[in-house]
Amino acid sequence: MDSATLIESFADFAKKKNIDRPTMIRILEDVFKTMIRKKYNYDDNFDVIVNSEKGDLEIWRFREIVDDNSEDIWDHDKISLSEAKKIEPDFEIGEEVAEEIKLEDFGRRAVLTARQTLLQKVKDLEKDLLFQKYKERVGEVVVAEVYQVLGREVLLIDNDNNELSLPKNEQIQKDRFRKGDSVRAIVHKVETTNGNPKIVLSRTAPSFLERLFENEVPEIFDGLITIKKIVREPGERAKVAVESYDERIDPVGACVGMKGSRIHSIVRELKNENIDVINYTDNLELFISRALSPAKVVRMEANEDSGRVAVFMKPDQVSLAIGKGGHNIRLASKLVDKEIDVYRENEGGADEDVLLSEFSDEIDQWIIDELKRVGLDTAMSVLALSGEELMRRTDLEEETIEEIIKILKQEFE
Protein backbone atom coordinates (compact mmCIF):
# COMPACT_ATOMS: atom_id res chain seq x y z
CA MET A 1 0.00 0.00 0.00
CA ASP A 2 1.52 3.35 -1.04
CA SER A 3 1.18 6.58 0.89
CA ALA A 4 -1.40 8.09 -1.46
CA THR A 5 -3.76 5.10 -1.08
CA LEU A 6 -3.31 5.04 2.69
CA ILE A 7 -3.99 8.74 3.18
CA GLU A 8 -6.86 8.83 0.70
CA SER A 9 -8.68 5.91 2.35
CA PHE A 10 -8.18 7.49 5.77
CA ALA A 11 -9.33 10.94 4.57
CA ASP A 12 -12.55 9.47 3.13
CA PHE A 13 -13.26 7.63 6.38
CA ALA A 14 -12.59 10.76 8.46
CA LYS A 15 -14.89 12.91 6.31
CA LYS A 16 -17.74 10.42 6.77
CA LYS A 17 -17.25 10.77 10.51
CA ASN A 18 -17.30 14.60 10.26
CA ILE A 19 -13.68 14.97 11.43
CA ASP A 20 -12.28 18.41 10.51
CA ARG A 21 -9.11 18.67 8.37
CA PRO A 22 -6.70 20.08 11.05
CA THR A 23 -7.66 17.26 13.42
CA MET A 24 -7.29 14.71 10.63
CA ILE A 25 -3.76 15.95 9.78
CA ARG A 26 -2.79 15.95 13.46
CA ILE A 27 -3.86 12.29 13.75
CA LEU A 28 -1.88 11.38 10.62
CA GLU A 29 1.24 13.11 11.90
CA ASP A 30 0.95 11.42 15.32
CA VAL A 31 0.62 7.95 13.76
CA PHE A 32 3.60 8.43 11.42
CA LYS A 33 5.70 9.83 14.25
CA THR A 34 4.90 6.64 16.19
CA MET A 35 6.10 4.56 13.19
CA ILE A 36 9.33 6.58 13.12
CA ARG A 37 9.99 6.03 16.84
CA LYS A 38 9.48 2.30 16.48
CA LYS A 39 12.02 2.09 13.65
CA TYR A 40 14.57 4.76 14.64
CA ASN A 41 13.88 5.17 18.43
CA TYR A 42 13.74 8.98 17.99
CA ASP A 43 11.52 11.38 16.05
CA ASP A 44 12.86 14.83 17.01
CA ASN A 45 14.98 15.11 13.84
CA PHE A 46 12.17 14.03 11.50
CA ASP A 47 9.56 16.16 9.73
CA VAL A 48 6.26 14.69 8.60
CA ILE A 49 4.49 16.67 5.85
CA VAL A 50 0.92 15.61 5.01
CA ASN A 51 -1.32 16.91 2.23
CA SER A 52 -4.58 15.03 2.80
CA GLU A 53 -6.28 16.58 -0.24
CA LYS A 54 -3.68 15.30 -2.71
CA GLY A 55 -2.82 12.17 -0.73
CA ASP A 56 0.83 13.30 -0.46
CA LEU A 57 3.07 12.19 2.40
CA GLU A 58 6.68 13.27 2.88
CA ILE A 59 8.92 12.10 5.70
CA TRP A 60 12.28 13.88 5.98
CA ARG A 61 15.18 12.91 8.24
CA PHE A 62 17.67 15.65 9.19
CA ARG A 63 21.23 14.89 10.37
CA GLU A 64 24.35 16.99 10.88
CA ILE A 65 27.55 15.86 9.07
CA VAL A 66 30.48 15.09 11.39
CA ASP A 67 34.01 13.73 10.85
CA ASP A 68 34.27 9.95 10.55
CA ASN A 69 36.40 9.89 13.75
CA SER A 70 34.11 12.21 15.76
CA GLU A 71 32.81 11.07 19.17
CA ASP A 72 29.31 12.28 18.14
CA ILE A 73 29.08 9.95 15.18
CA TRP A 74 26.75 7.57 17.04
CA ASP A 75 24.21 10.28 17.95
CA HIS A 76 20.86 9.78 16.22
CA ASP A 77 20.94 13.25 14.65
CA LYS A 78 24.54 12.92 13.27
CA ILE A 79 25.93 11.27 10.12
CA SER A 80 29.54 10.58 9.14
CA LEU A 81 31.07 12.48 6.21
CA SER A 82 31.68 9.24 4.28
CA GLU A 83 28.00 8.22 4.64
CA ALA A 84 26.84 11.71 3.63
CA LYS A 85 28.97 11.67 0.48
CA LYS A 86 27.10 8.52 -0.64
CA ILE A 87 23.97 10.67 -0.70
CA GLU A 88 25.60 13.74 -2.23
CA PRO A 89 29.34 13.88 -3.14
CA ASP A 90 29.63 17.64 -2.46
CA PHE A 91 28.61 17.49 1.24
CA GLU A 92 31.05 18.86 3.83
CA ILE A 93 31.40 18.63 7.63
CA GLY A 94 28.93 20.87 9.52
CA GLU A 95 26.28 20.80 6.81
CA GLU A 96 22.81 19.28 7.31
CA VAL A 97 21.63 16.28 5.34
CA ALA A 98 17.92 16.14 4.49
CA GLU A 99 17.05 12.57 3.54
CA GLU A 100 13.57 11.58 2.38
CA ILE A 101 12.23 8.36 3.94
CA LYS A 102 9.74 6.45 1.85
CA LEU A 103 6.71 4.74 3.40
CA GLU A 104 7.87 1.47 1.89
CA ASP A 105 11.05 1.66 3.99
CA PHE A 106 9.02 0.90 7.11
CA GLY A 107 7.86 -2.47 5.79
CA ARG A 108 4.44 -3.83 4.85
CA ARG A 109 3.48 -4.89 8.37
CA ALA A 110 4.24 -1.45 9.83
CA VAL A 111 2.12 0.23 7.13
CA LEU A 112 -0.87 -2.08 7.79
CA THR A 113 -0.51 -1.43 11.52
CA ALA A 114 -0.50 2.30 10.84
CA ARG A 115 -3.70 1.99 8.83
CA GLN A 116 -5.47 0.15 11.66
CA THR A 117 -4.17 2.71 14.16
CA LEU A 118 -5.51 5.56 12.04
CA LEU A 119 -8.98 4.04 11.86
CA GLN A 120 -9.00 3.32 15.60
CA LYS A 121 -7.93 6.88 16.43
CA VAL A 122 -10.82 8.25 14.37
CA LYS A 123 -13.26 5.96 16.13
CA ASP A 124 -11.89 7.07 19.52
CA LEU A 125 -12.14 10.69 18.46
CA GLU A 126 -15.70 10.12 17.27
CA LYS A 127 -16.58 8.73 20.72
CA ASP A 128 -15.02 11.78 22.41
CA LEU A 129 -16.93 14.16 20.12
CA LEU A 130 -20.21 12.33 20.84
CA PHE A 131 -19.54 12.45 24.59
CA GLN A 132 -18.77 16.18 24.52
CA LYS A 133 -21.72 16.94 22.23
CA TYR A 134 -24.26 15.40 24.59
CA LYS A 135 -22.44 16.50 27.75
CA GLU A 136 -23.17 20.06 26.65
CA ARG A 137 -26.81 19.14 25.96
CA VAL A 138 -27.64 17.71 29.40
CA GLY A 139 -30.99 19.24 30.37
CA GLU A 140 -32.14 19.73 26.76
CA VAL A 141 -35.08 17.99 25.11
CA VAL A 142 -34.23 15.72 22.19
CA VAL A 143 -36.41 13.84 19.71
CA ALA A 144 -35.22 10.39 18.72
CA GLU A 145 -36.58 7.29 17.00
CA VAL A 146 -37.10 3.94 18.70
CA TYR A 147 -35.18 1.13 17.02
CA GLN A 148 -35.14 -1.54 19.74
CA VAL A 149 -37.34 -2.20 22.78
CA LEU A 150 -35.60 -4.23 25.50
CA GLY A 151 -36.71 -5.33 28.95
CA ARG A 152 -34.65 -2.80 30.91
CA GLU A 153 -34.37 0.01 28.38
CA VAL A 154 -35.51 1.38 25.06
CA LEU A 155 -32.75 2.10 22.53
CA LEU A 156 -33.22 5.09 20.23
CA ILE A 157 -31.22 6.75 17.46
CA ASP A 158 -30.86 10.47 16.79
CA ASN A 159 -30.57 12.20 13.40
CA ASP A 160 -26.87 11.24 13.18
CA ASN A 161 -27.58 7.57 13.98
CA ASN A 162 -26.07 7.87 17.46
CA GLU A 163 -27.48 5.43 20.00
CA LEU A 164 -29.41 6.83 22.99
CA SER A 165 -30.80 4.95 25.97
CA LEU A 166 -34.12 5.44 27.79
CA PRO A 167 -33.97 3.15 30.86
CA LYS A 168 -37.12 1.61 32.32
CA ASN A 169 -36.85 3.69 35.51
CA GLU A 170 -36.71 6.89 33.41
CA GLN A 171 -39.92 6.03 31.53
CA ILE A 172 -43.42 7.06 32.56
CA GLN A 173 -45.27 3.97 33.79
CA LYS A 174 -47.87 4.32 31.03
CA ASP A 175 -45.26 4.67 28.25
CA ARG A 176 -45.54 2.04 25.51
CA PHE A 177 -43.03 2.15 22.67
CA ARG A 178 -42.76 0.37 19.31
CA LYS A 179 -39.99 0.40 16.75
CA GLY A 180 -40.17 3.53 14.61
CA ASP A 181 -41.95 5.64 17.27
CA SER A 182 -40.76 9.21 17.71
CA VAL A 183 -39.95 9.93 21.36
CA ARG A 184 -39.36 13.18 23.22
CA ALA A 185 -37.16 13.07 26.33
CA ILE A 186 -34.56 15.10 28.16
CA VAL A 187 -30.83 14.38 28.10
CA HIS A 188 -30.48 13.22 31.71
CA LYS A 189 -26.80 12.26 31.95
CA VAL A 190 -23.83 11.13 29.85
CA GLU A 191 -21.70 8.24 31.07
CA THR A 192 -18.73 6.24 29.82
CA THR A 193 -19.15 2.45 29.85
CA ASN A 194 -16.21 0.28 28.77
CA GLY A 195 -14.74 3.23 26.92
CA ASN A 196 -17.98 3.93 25.03
CA PRO A 197 -20.18 6.97 25.71
CA LYS A 198 -23.71 6.19 26.92
CA ILE A 199 -26.34 8.92 26.59
CA VAL A 200 -29.14 8.39 29.11
CA LEU A 201 -32.51 10.05 28.49
CA SER A 202 -35.36 10.64 30.92
CA ARG A 203 -39.09 11.32 30.74
CA THR A 204 -39.60 11.28 34.52
CA ALA A 205 -37.19 14.05 35.57
CA PRO A 206 -38.82 17.31 36.78
CA SER A 207 -36.57 19.16 34.33
CA PHE A 208 -38.35 17.39 31.42
CA LEU A 209 -41.65 18.94 32.53
CA GLU A 210 -39.90 22.29 32.92
CA ARG A 211 -38.59 22.16 29.32
CA LEU A 212 -42.06 21.25 28.05
CA PHE A 213 -43.49 24.33 29.77
CA GLU A 214 -40.75 26.47 28.22
CA ASN A 215 -41.69 25.16 24.77
CA GLU A 216 -45.42 25.76 25.23
CA VAL A 217 -45.44 29.00 27.25
CA PRO A 218 -43.62 31.92 25.53
CA GLU A 219 -43.69 33.97 28.74
CA ILE A 220 -41.56 31.31 30.50
CA PHE A 221 -39.17 31.09 27.56
CA ASP A 222 -38.82 34.91 27.54
CA GLY A 223 -38.22 35.05 31.31
CA LEU A 224 -41.41 36.97 32.19
CA ILE A 225 -42.59 33.96 34.21
CA THR A 226 -40.25 31.75 36.18
CA ILE A 227 -40.78 28.21 37.41
CA LYS A 228 -39.84 28.22 41.10
CA LYS A 229 -40.19 24.47 41.73
CA ILE A 230 -41.56 21.29 40.18
CA VAL A 231 -42.46 18.07 41.98
CA ARG A 232 -43.73 15.00 40.13
CA GLU A 233 -45.01 11.49 40.46
CA PRO A 234 -44.54 10.71 36.75
CA GLY A 235 -47.69 9.74 34.90
CA GLU A 236 -49.86 10.44 37.95
CA ARG A 237 -49.62 13.99 39.24
CA ALA A 238 -47.35 17.03 39.25
CA LYS A 239 -47.33 20.40 40.98
CA VAL A 240 -45.63 23.40 39.37
CA ALA A 241 -45.04 26.62 41.34
CA VAL A 242 -44.74 29.67 39.07
CA GLU A 243 -44.12 33.37 39.61
CA SER A 244 -44.54 36.37 37.32
CA TYR A 245 -42.13 39.30 37.14
CA ASP A 246 -44.80 41.39 35.41
CA GLU A 247 -47.84 42.33 37.51
CA ARG A 248 -49.98 42.44 34.35
CA ILE A 249 -49.36 38.74 33.64
CA ASP A 250 -51.26 36.04 35.50
CA PRO A 251 -48.66 33.23 35.68
CA VAL A 252 -51.17 30.43 36.24
CA GLY A 253 -53.46 31.61 33.44
CA ALA A 254 -50.53 32.02 31.05
CA CYS A 255 -49.31 28.48 31.75
CA VAL A 256 -52.74 26.89 31.38
CA GLY A 257 -53.71 28.91 28.30
CA MET A 258 -57.11 29.71 26.84
CA LYS A 259 -59.39 26.77 27.67
CA GLY A 260 -56.30 24.80 28.68
CA SER A 261 -54.78 24.99 25.19
CA ARG A 262 -51.18 25.25 26.40
CA ILE A 263 -51.23 22.70 29.17
CA HIS A 264 -53.24 20.07 27.24
CA SER A 265 -50.35 19.23 24.93
CA ILE A 266 -48.06 18.80 27.95
CA VAL A 267 -50.60 16.54 29.68
CA ARG A 268 -50.89 14.38 26.53
CA GLU A 269 -47.10 14.10 26.25
CA LEU A 270 -46.94 12.92 29.87
CA LYS A 271 -49.66 10.26 29.43
CA ASN A 272 -52.44 12.32 31.08
CA GLU A 273 -50.39 13.33 34.11
CA ASN A 274 -52.56 15.61 36.28
CA ILE A 275 -50.69 18.95 36.48
CA ASP A 276 -51.50 21.57 39.13
CA VAL A 277 -50.08 25.01 38.34
CA ILE A 278 -49.75 27.07 41.53
CA ASN A 279 -49.01 30.75 42.05
CA TYR A 280 -45.84 30.92 44.16
CA THR A 281 -45.73 33.12 47.28
CA ASP A 282 -43.29 33.69 50.15
CA ASN A 283 -46.23 33.48 52.56
CA LEU A 284 -45.89 29.88 53.81
CA GLU A 285 -49.51 29.48 54.98
CA LEU A 286 -50.88 30.80 51.71
CA PHE A 287 -48.44 28.64 49.72
CA ILE A 288 -49.51 25.52 51.65
CA SER A 289 -53.19 26.34 51.06
CA ARG A 290 -52.55 26.65 47.33
CA ALA A 291 -50.46 23.47 47.30
CA LEU A 292 -53.30 21.46 48.87
CA SER A 293 -55.81 22.67 46.29
CA PRO A 294 -58.57 21.71 45.50
CA ALA A 295 -59.05 21.10 49.26
CA LYS A 296 -59.92 24.17 51.38
CA VAL A 297 -57.99 24.79 54.59
CA VAL A 298 -59.72 26.15 57.72
CA ARG A 299 -56.58 26.86 59.73
CA MET A 300 -53.02 25.60 60.24
CA GLU A 301 -50.36 25.43 62.92
CA ALA A 302 -46.66 25.27 62.03
CA ASN A 303 -44.00 23.67 64.21
CA GLU A 304 -40.70 25.28 63.29
CA ASP A 305 -38.62 22.81 65.32
CA SER A 306 -39.95 19.66 63.64
CA GLY A 307 -40.54 21.17 60.20
CA ARG A 308 -44.13 19.88 60.30
CA VAL A 309 -47.35 21.79 59.64
CA ALA A 310 -50.73 20.74 61.07
CA VAL A 311 -53.53 21.63 58.67
CA PHE A 312 -57.16 21.62 59.85
CA MET A 313 -60.07 21.34 57.44
CA LYS A 314 -63.68 20.24 57.25
CA PRO A 315 -64.18 16.45 57.13
CA ASP A 316 -65.39 16.49 53.54
CA GLN A 317 -62.18 18.22 52.45
CA VAL A 318 -59.73 15.72 53.94
CA SER A 319 -59.97 13.16 51.15
CA LEU A 320 -59.42 15.94 48.59
CA ALA A 321 -56.32 17.10 50.45
CA ILE A 322 -54.89 13.60 50.60
CA GLY A 323 -55.83 12.71 47.03
CA LYS A 324 -55.93 9.34 45.30
CA GLY A 325 -53.19 7.13 46.71
CA GLY A 326 -51.93 10.07 48.79
CA HIS A 327 -50.49 11.80 45.69
CA ASN A 328 -51.83 15.27 46.51
CA ILE A 329 -50.57 15.60 50.08
CA ARG A 330 -47.28 13.90 49.25
CA LEU A 331 -46.54 16.32 46.41
CA ALA A 332 -47.76 19.31 48.42
CA SER A 333 -45.31 18.41 51.19
CA LYS A 334 -42.45 18.20 48.70
CA LEU A 335 -43.45 21.48 47.04
CA VAL A 336 -43.48 23.53 50.28
CA ASP A 337 -40.60 21.50 51.78
CA LYS A 338 -42.61 20.74 54.93
CA GLU A 339 -44.26 17.58 56.26
CA ILE A 340 -47.99 18.33 56.18
CA ASP A 341 -50.32 16.59 58.66
CA VAL A 342 -54.05 16.87 57.92
CA TYR A 343 -56.61 17.02 60.78
CA ARG A 344 -60.37 17.23 60.72
CA GLU A 345 -61.75 20.42 62.22
CA ASN A 346 -64.26 19.44 64.94
CA GLU A 347 -67.59 21.03 64.06
CA GLY A 348 -69.54 19.39 66.86
CA GLY A 349 -72.00 17.72 64.49
CA ALA A 350 -72.72 14.09 63.79
CA ASP A 351 -70.33 12.37 61.47
CA GLU A 352 -70.02 8.85 60.16
CA ASP A 353 -66.30 8.89 60.95
CA VAL A 354 -64.97 7.42 64.22
CA LEU A 355 -62.16 8.79 66.37
CA LEU A 356 -59.16 6.48 66.74
CA SER A 357 -59.35 6.85 70.52
CA GLU A 358 -62.53 4.75 70.42
CA PHE A 359 -60.45 1.78 69.22
CA SER A 360 -58.19 1.78 72.29
CA ASP A 361 -59.50 -1.65 73.35
CA GLU A 362 -58.29 -3.17 70.04
CA ILE A 363 -55.32 -0.95 69.10
CA ASP A 364 -52.44 -0.17 71.48
CA GLN A 365 -52.36 3.43 72.66
CA TRP A 366 -48.79 3.98 71.40
CA ILE A 367 -49.96 3.06 67.88
CA ILE A 368 -52.88 5.51 68.12
CA ASP A 369 -50.47 8.21 69.34
CA GLU A 370 -48.14 7.54 66.39
CA LEU A 371 -51.02 7.90 63.93
CA LYS A 372 -52.20 11.10 65.62
CA ARG A 373 -48.65 12.47 65.41
CA VAL A 374 -48.93 12.56 61.61
CA GLY A 375 -52.44 14.03 61.60
CA LEU A 376 -54.47 10.81 61.43
CA ASP A 377 -56.98 11.04 64.27
CA THR A 378 -59.98 9.23 62.78
CA ALA A 379 -60.63 5.84 61.17
CA MET A 380 -61.53 7.35 57.79
CA SER A 381 -58.34 9.44 57.66
CA VAL A 382 -56.27 6.26 58.10
CA LEU A 383 -58.25 4.26 55.54
CA ALA A 384 -57.88 7.10 53.01
CA LEU A 385 -54.16 6.30 52.73
CA SER A 386 -52.51 3.25 51.23
CA GLY A 387 -50.40 0.90 53.33
CA GLU A 388 -47.23 2.16 51.61
CA GLU A 389 -48.08 5.77 52.42
CA LEU A 390 -48.80 4.92 56.06
CA MET A 391 -45.41 3.19 56.31
CA ARG A 392 -43.71 6.22 54.80
CA ARG A 393 -45.33 8.72 57.14
CA THR A 394 -45.13 6.73 60.38
CA ASP A 395 -42.63 4.47 62.16
CA LEU A 396 -45.04 1.53 62.08
CA GLU A 397 -44.17 -1.83 60.53
CA GLU A 398 -46.06 -3.38 57.63
CA GLU A 399 -47.70 -6.13 59.75
CA THR A 400 -48.93 -3.56 62.29
CA ILE A 401 -50.44 -1.37 59.58
CA GLU A 402 -52.20 -4.34 57.96
CA GLU A 403 -53.76 -5.24 61.32
CA ILE A 404 -54.88 -1.63 61.92
CA ILE A 405 -56.53 -1.41 58.49
CA LYS A 406 -58.30 -4.73 59.11
CA ILE A 407 -59.71 -3.52 62.46
CA LEU A 408 -60.86 -0.17 61.08
CA LYS A 409 -62.51 -1.69 58.01
CA GLN A 410 -64.56 -4.01 60.24
CA GLU A 411 -66.05 -0.93 61.87
CA PHE A 412 -67.63 0.19 58.59
CA GLU A 413 -68.72 -3.21 57.28
What would your notes on this structure say?
- The chain is of the alpha/beta class.
- It has helices spanning 3-16, 21-40, 81-87, 108-135, 206-216, 218-221, 251-256, 261-269, 284-291, 315-322, 327-336, 365-373, 379-383, 387-393, 398-412, and strands spanning 46-51, 56-66, 78-80, 96-101, 141-149, 153-157, 163-167, 182-193, 196-202, 225-233, 237-244, 274-279, 299-303, 308-313, 339-344.
- Among the domains are: 3-133, N Utilization Substance Protein A, Chain:P, domain 4; 137-204, Nucleic acid-binding proteins (OB fold (Dihydrolipoamide Acetyltransferase, E2P)).
- The chain has a 5-stranded mixed β-barrel with strand order 5-6-7-9-8.
- The chain is elongated and about 115 Å long.
- The mean pLDDT is 86.
Core attributes:
413 residues, alpha/beta, N Utilization Substance Protein A, Chain:P, domain 4, OB fold (Dihydrolipoamide Acetyltransferase, E2P), 5-stranded mixed barrel, 4-stranded mixed β-sheet, 15 helices, 15 strands, 39% helix, Transcription termination/antitermination protein NusA, TF_NusA, RNA binding
